[in-house]
Design goal:
Distance between the termini: 114 Å
Keywords: Glycerol metabolism, Membrane, Transmembrane, Transmembrane helix
Organism: Zea mays
Enzyme class: hydrolase
Number of strands: 4
Low-confidence stretches: none
Shape: elongated
Strand content: 5-15%
GO molecular function: glycerophosphodiester phosphodiesterase activity
Order of helices and strands: HHHHEHEEE
Radius of gyration: 43 Å
Structural class: alpha+beta
EC number: 3.1.4.46
Length: about 140
């Protein structure tokens, strides 16, 4: 009935799948136009320029990651800068008899940080060095 009285019914135009983006202001387009002027006209030169710019990404990435690398290296290998303390147990027992004056002297000549001595006291009050004696063993630094 509607088609007879008012004429044929008109269909609205179909909506586009991808509507056109709103154009930004002219200064942005002007900026791209200025940058486009500096690009070389040859496609090969443009490709080389693109490759040159892409080659700057890995050094920049690794430069930013360098701090993290140094932190990890310090955590794993920090003992190199601050070496552990070396203590000679009974003196230098590889070159002299353990707990002897020669072993103590050789250990001190080897520049160790400390020498561990097992000191015991006899019944008459004399101190002597005896390695791993059970009972009255004391460590003296």
């Amino acid at each position: 009935m509607r088609g007879i009285l008012f004429g044929p019914r008109r269909q609205p135009p179909p909506l586009p799948l991808f509507p056109a983006a709103k154009r930004s202001s002219a200064p942005a387009n002007l900026l791209f136009a200025r940058l486009y002027r500096f690009l070389p006209a040859s496609p090969i030169l443009r490709l080389l320029l693109l490759l040159a710019l892409l080659s700057l990404i890995p050094p920049a990435f690794f430069h930013l990651r360098l701090r993290r690398f140094h932190q990890m290296r310090e955590r794993k290998c920090g003992w190199i800068a601050r070496p552990p303390m070396v203590c000679a147990h009974g003196g230098d027992s590889t070159n002299a008899f353990p707990n002897s004056m020669d072993a103590f002297r050789m250990a001190l000549d080897a520049r160790v940080d400390c020498v561990e001595v097992d000191v015991s006291r006899s019944y008459d009050g004399v101190l002597f060095a005896l390695h791993d004696r059970q009972g009255s063993t004391k460590d003296v630094w």
